[in-house]
Amino acid sequence: MSDTPLVEMRDMSIAFGGNHAVDNVSVDLFSGEVVALLGHNGAGKSTLIKILSGAYRRDAGEIYVDGELTHIDNPRDAKRYGIETIYQTLALADNVDAAANLFLGRELRTKWGTLDDVAMEAACREVMGRLNPNFQRFKDPVAALSGGQRQSVAIARAIHFNARILIMDEPTAALGPQETEQVADLIKKLKAEGIGIFLISHDIHDVFDLADRMSVMKNGRLVGTARTVDVTEDEVLGMIILGKCPPGAIPGPGALSEAA
Amino acid sequence: MTDHTASAPVSGAREITPGPIGRFLEATEIDTRMLGMIGALAVIWIGFHIASGGVFLTPRNLWNLSVQTASIAVMSTGMVLVIVTRNIDLSVGSVLGVIGMLMGVFQAEFLPGLIGFDHGATWLLALAFGILVGAAIGALHGYVIAYLGVPAFIVTLGGLLVWRGAAWWVTSGRTVAPMDSTFRLIGGGTEGSIGAAASWGVGLVTCAAIIVMLVNGRRQRRRFKFPLRPLWAEGVLGSIGCGFVLAAIWIANSYPWPKRIAARYAEAQGIEAPPEGLFISHGLAIPVLIAIAVGVVMTFIATRTRFGRYVFAIGGNPEAADLAGVNTKRVKMMIFMLMGVLCAIASAISTARLNAATNAQGTLDELFTIAAAVIGGTSLSGGVGTIAGAMLGALVMQSLQSGMVLMGLDTPLQTIVVGAVLVLAVWLDIVYRRKTA
Ligand SMILES: Nc1ncnc2c1ncn2[C@@H]1O[C@H](COP(=O)(O)OP(=O)(O)OP(=O)(O)O)[C@@H](O)[C@H]1O
Ligand SMILES: [Mg+2]
Q1: Which protein residue's CA is at the shortest distance from atom 3 of ligand 1?
Q2: Which residues on A lie below 8 Å from B323 (Cβ)?
Q3: Parent domain of A177
Q4: Which residue in chain B has the smallest CA separation from A99?
Q5: What are the distances in angstroms from CA B115 to CA B109, B119, B213?
Q6: A45 CA to centre of ligand 2 in angstroms
Q7: Which of A143, B53, B103, B256 is the most buried (most CB within 10 A)?
């Protein structure tokens, strides 16, 4: 692992009206590393990663990729830096099929410039076969799929295009135990390939199983960042619920001050 | 669609093994919704035929119907894309009007001073000018909608008023006539038809295209080892398609030129006319060919290009399209530009048919265009619609209109019926979707 982070988000802030959804948060991620983002509902996790994926424009702060300042103003910019995202809402176009969603914005084309639907369906069958072997509904619009099947499509889309930086916002929320296990294996495999992963999850066991480090947010502010080996599950719960930063973690601006 | 079979199967077993009709539909992958529309059209046609005492289903009437449908059909193809992306365009009738006036003045008053009267290139220059104006108007609408964020309903409602006013402004209300003699062919009529031989030619080429498409589709699916349709189903599809095409051509060719014009033509060509008069076929009308060409091109754009894929994705989930990296603003602007171009083509057809440009031209066309798209299965909640459906919808609307004229119904009654049918059709569609969802 080199010492320049793959991604560094420095002093990010964004407000919706008077609501400071993300307030002065800094996180970083090295290649081949899984960093978990934790926090209760509404803590600002999704908002933070949506800035990185180009969905939201930040009010303040800088994003560095490979140590270089970036200009991420929309999702296309983010993709150019190899940032792929599985959104909490999945962000699928419900009226078109799995292959069309997989390749949305990056369609395969024939030599005449027309859509190569057959090739896209073939590629889709291949990825989905690896990810969710039971998946067979390639002709149906994704609106007709189950929650887990839809989630598989969203995951397939994020991993199919050689991401360097992968953002997974609660990727297993709708999956059954077997598929969840498959996603865990997938994360380990991608990590071994040197991909950096931001993982948002409410499942603390999963996080301890998969993450190298974790950053905890509360009310839009960073409570602290810790290496998984330096903290216990109870200490992390304390960070999430109370905002109390344990000795093994580096406190952020949102940590409960010791003096109080 | 009910599929009661003659053999009266035991209920319960019916759900597991579909009856012959169900199996047939499954194997051929025919869209049952489209089938329903063709059925509705058949009912309307046969109904009017009986009610009008046998004058509806005649070559002459059907030929006229095809010409009258062309202009709305052209615009309805663009309206599909507009509505699919959850927008609306209320301005198409007014845009048609102002472009008609501009093309009229351009060819009847501006060009003659420049290149002389009845110059061979006049029609082309006038058409190109109209298309440019249409694209510019559409781009303006699209820009305000996509980039400034004003809802399409408001922008095009404004456009409805602005462009109708502008149409008057071009000549202060004066009607412009006549049009260039070649330009007039765009509107159809005796001369604006391609005759029997060329029509058969078009028919054969179309049949060949249908067969090539089926064969090619099959080869593609085999290449990637996807499930194939049974061979008999391919055969049935091909025969139905070719049968429809050839029947339409046969009908168009059965409509002869009026006796007087045919006699004059015979005299001019020095042909010996038989005593019962010369039988010269109209064949397909040029505006109909234009509408069909537009339909083919628009279907290609909607289903085979990136742009078309984005249009549908935006309709299904605008946010998802954005997050996937689609430049949704640019796509929206392009849709409205395309709509403007189609208005120009429709305007050329209707101006040429009237052989005049008037400032009232195209009034209420927006409603017929929207109705055609919606009757044709375009969902107002976005994401769903086909070009072919909208064109069929235009034919349904025009059939109603023409049928009522043929029966001598008063104009106010006609509008009442058309309005009621629109609501009924959309309600049926909602019921259908609920059943099949
Ligand atoms: N587009 C938006 N407009 C207005 N407020 C927003 C918007 N997006 C998020 N917020 C607000 O920002 C805050 C943080 O929301 P966010 O979705 O980031 O939380 P989260 O940590 O992802 O929660 P969860 O665990 O429930 O997914 C919330 O108060 C939310 O209401
Ligand atoms: Mg969230």
Answers
A1: A16
A2: 53, 55, 75, 85, 87, 91
A3: 1-82+164-260
A4: B309
A5: 11, 7, 45
A6: 6
A7: B103
- Verify that A63 and A174 share a domain, yes or no: yes
**Residue type for position B50:** I
Within a domain: B424: yes
Dihedral sign computed on CA atoms, order B405, B409, B412, B413: negative
Residues A153 and A172 in one domain: no
Sorted by sequence, the CB contacts under 8 Å of residue A83 that are 6+ apart come out as A7, A52, A53, A54, A65, A72, A163, A164, A165, A166, A167
Q: Is the omega angle on the peptide bond into residue B258 within 30 degrees of 0, that is, cis?
A: no
Q: Does the Cβ of A56 fall within 6 Å of ligand 1?
A: no
> Are B291 and B257 in a shared domain?
no
- The pTM of the full predicted model, rounded to 2 decimals, is 0.90
- Nearest neighbour of B317 by CB, restricted to A79, A85, A93: A93
Asked if the structure places residue A88 within a domain, the reply is no
Provide the phi-psi class of A67: left if phi over 0, else alpha when psi is between -120 and 50, else beta: left
What ipTM describes this predicted complex?
0.90
- B-chain residues near A143 (CB < 8 A): 316
**Residue where a domain terminates, one of A131, A161, A191:** A161
What CATH number has the domain bearing residue B404? 1.10.3470
Residue B19 within a domain:
no
Nearest CA to ligand 1 atom 29: A42
Total domain count, chain A: 2
pLDDT in tens, chain A (260 residues): 568 999 999 999 999 999 999 999 999 999 999 999 999 999 999 999 999 999 999 999 999 999 999 999 999 999 999 999 999 999 999 999 999 999 999 999 999 999 999 899 999 999 998 888 888 889 899 999 988 899 999 999 999 998 999 999 999 888 888 888 888 999 999 999 999 999 999 999 989 999 999 999 999 999 999 999 999 999 999 999 999 999 999 999 988 865 44
The rounded distance, in Å, linking the Cα atoms of B28 and B47 is 29
Report yes or no on B188 lying in a domain: yes
- Say if A203 is an interface residue toward chain B (CB within 8 Å): no
